[in-house]
Write a structure and sequence with these properties.
70 residues; mainly alpha
């Protein structure tokens, strides 16, 4: 193959990847965990999400109910 044919092939490959839809943050994170075998990150992420949910709901009308849990 000549250099021009390689350039055309790589351009079409790039265009085909660019035309695909995005997979999303959550699915990309799950694929990262599977590919890199980082399953120990899962409990940390879940705990941080729960803390964030409690912190966000503490500023709402649900605050009195949250305080009774602790």
């Amino acid at each position: 193959m000549t250099e021009e044919e390689n350039l055309i092939d790589s351009k079409s490959e790039f265009e085909s990847h660019a035309s695909q839809s995005d997979i999303g943050v959550v699915q990309e994170f799950v694929l990262f965990l599977k590919h890199n075998k980082k399953w120990w990150l899962t409990p940390i992420v879940i705990a941080l999400l729960l803390i964030a949910a409690i912190a966000i709901s503490a500023g709402t009308g649900a605050a009195p109910f949250i305080y009774t849990l602790f």
